[in-house]
Each structure stands twice: as C-alpha cells, then as structure tokens.
Predict the structure.
Amino acid sequence: MSVAQGSALLHFTRNGAYGPDGAELLVLERGEGAYVFDTHGNRYVDGLSSLYCAQIGYSFGEEMGAVATQQLQELAFNTMWSTAHPRALELADRLAGLAPDPINKVFFTSGGSESVEAAWKIARQYHVANGEPQRLKAIARRTAYHGVTLGALALTGVPAYKEIFGPPALQVRHVSNTNAFRSELQGEALTAKLLAELEATILEEGPDTISVIVAEPVQNAGGCLVPPPGYWPGLRELADRYGILLHADEVITGFGRIGEWFAVERFGATPDLITVAKGLTSAYAPMGAVLVSDRVAAPFYEDNRTLLHGITFGGHPLSATIALKNLEIFEREGVLENVNEHEAGLQERLLTLRDEFTIIGDVRGAGFFWAVEFVKDDQNTRLDADERERLLRGYMPQAMLDAGLIARADDRGDAVMQIAPPLISDDAILDEIVEKMRTVLRGAEAVVLG
Ligand SMILES: Cc1ncc(COP(=O)(O)O)c(C=O)c1O
C-alpha cells in the first residue's frame, strides 16, 4: 500500500504522482550520522545532506535539544526590530569573526530566499543613501537558483520556474554561467570570455543603473559549476570599476560545503554581501542571514536612517542558539578539515565512474559538492527531452531509493546526478555513496543506451 501525502502539498513535486495508485511517498522519520531511516525502517545514506543542509549529519540532536530547551525556558522569542536578545547578538559577532574582512555586519532571516531578498533591499538602500537611486537592476547568471519568493525568483535564472508567474519583480539580466564542460574555451581563456560578456552587459544596460551582480561561488543548478581561475577576482574588479555591489549567494556553498566557512575564500575575492541559510544551523532549525561589509552597512548607522526591512522570525533565539552550537560542533569535530582531507579522494572515486560508464561525460565540483553529467555517447551528445524524462524522472528516483541512496537527478541545466554528502562523512561513507551510485548508474546506462 503506497503512502499518500494526506493534506500536505509537497514543494516542487508532482503532487498527483503519489497515492493509492501512484508512487510510494518517502517519509523519513529518523537520522543517525550520515544515514536516514523511513517509516518502514529502511536505511538510506543521505548523499544530498537533506538538500545541502545537514552539514554535521543527524547525530547531534541531544546536544542541540539541550541548548534549545535551555533557550526556550529562558526566553522563547524576541524580535530584532529595535530590540534584540543575547544569542542573536552573540551569533552576529561570531559570524562577523568568521567572514572575511571587511564583512562585519549581519542581518538575520529565516531562510535562503529571504536572505537573497534582504540582500537586494540592503544593496538598494545603500545606493539610494549614496545618491544613486537609479541603480535598480541586477545581473545574475543563467540556470542559477536563488530562491522562489518573487524578488529572489527574478534573480533565479531558470525560465521554467518563472514564466507562468508573469513579469519578474526586478529587472535582471542573466549572463553565462561557468559551465566549462560545454565551453570550447577553458581556464583563463574561459574566464576572459565570461568577464567580457559581463562587462558588455553592464555597458549595454548602463553601468550606473546596476545595483548588484549576484553569483554562487559554485553554481548548483546546472550541476556544480566551478568558476575558472581568476573569475571571482574578475567579478570583484568589474563591480568596483562600475560602482556595482558584488553579492555571493552562499546558501549552499557556505559553512563547509567547499571546505571553507565561505567558499569565496577559496576563489580569491571578497564580496560586499554574502547570503547564507541551510548549513548555518545544519538544519537543526531554520535560519538564514545576510553578511554585509562595513561599507555597505555604513549608511544604516547614519542619523535618522531606518533599515527598511524586517522579518518577524529573523534571528529567532531558538535558531540562533542552535547555530552557535552548530559552529561549536564544526570546530570541535574538525568539519572543515574533514572536507579538505577527503575532497581529492571523493573526486577520484567519481572519476572512476566516468571511466566505467559511457553515459557519464563529465565529473565536476569541489569540496563535498559534486555532479556527474549524463551524455549519450563518447561525443558527449546531450540527452533529449524524452530521454531526460525517462532517466531522471522515470528511472532514477526509485532506483536511488532501491539502492538505499539519497541523491539528486536534475536537468534545470544539462542532465546531472548530484551528490553533497554530510560534511562529517568518512572514507567508508564516501565509498558507500559511490558504490550505490554505481548500482544506480548501471541501470541508468541501460535506460539511455538500451
Ligand atoms: C543558492 C541558493 N539561494 C537561495 C536559495 C533559497 O533558499 P530557501 O529554499 O531556503 O528559500 C537556495 C535554495 O536551495 C539556493 O540554493
């Protein structure tokens, strides 16, 4: 008997696919380390960290529960609206200490989309305060996902998520992302081409009409698109040349996913704004934040200027205390060190899959954030729409569950399988993930090649 979703509407889901005559809905009820268990007791290795969230895995509930209980007994809630509470203040200082200088101010939200919109509004107010109210546009990248609330959706570069909702809330130009696999140019030549396109777009729109450039350090949608050398310093240079703010959306890449607190540190540029969520609490509670440089924050400290944005639950004490504990666990357990220690080994394992399977054309990523791209043949021919439907939505979801693996099959860009293991994963867990991928890929090859 398959399980239906009852009264719940599932997010980004074909809701009608489940029910008495449909597929079984995966209902997870327990976690331990890098593993999750469904209501039948089946065990899965969580190769996606619950959508890039569960950095420290699932075994810290007791410790998190203890600080949560203490906080709820002390004070369940206070806002950050002209008032505050100790844990959020402490967390803001902690994050300012972790972020690269001169990023020293923190605005709390309840999640990623809210962070992206808050960053947009902070940037806007900064420009207005500096006498440049005409800076109303943004530049983002094709296929990038920055969230779904209407402002964030305008920045998102996935047409299928946007078009039916009418004209976008913000004026955004989307430029090429850093997909090296599908580019004729590589390395610095690719960087030069991408930056030239960006600069041409800035000039076409009018440099003094642009408020922000928004980019993920490693772009998720499209399959872990790593920047070519010099790309982030190039973004920084163009932003500075034209008075534009640079916003790194680190909702996925922040908090160790790439082996650093913030992935931009690896790619050699300091942005003006960093958005985070997910890994900030390792999802033991919902929370997001915008981290802001001193320069961008300065106008908000001037006489008589109000920061015109606020979210009731932004900086909730429960989430703040859990985020603080999460950061403590990161340091105590050597989470960043673990990612850096295992990154090369994970890449090597995935490269063996590329050698084994015709349908894998590319392996790319960084840290604990990797994608394999599906192709039809040795010429790296893309799968057509029908093949993608059969493979990514027909075969893979159930095949992955049957193998005891949670991973992602996605074609917002080209067709990929993506993994993002919990950052506490050791060699045995990485071996298990890759072995389960191998099982799924054997069937996938049969689906594509017949
Ligand atoms: C880069 C990026 N920005 C923003 C968001 C939106 O975050 P949320 O789903 O918490 O609103 C996501 C979600 O996956 C994301 O990956």
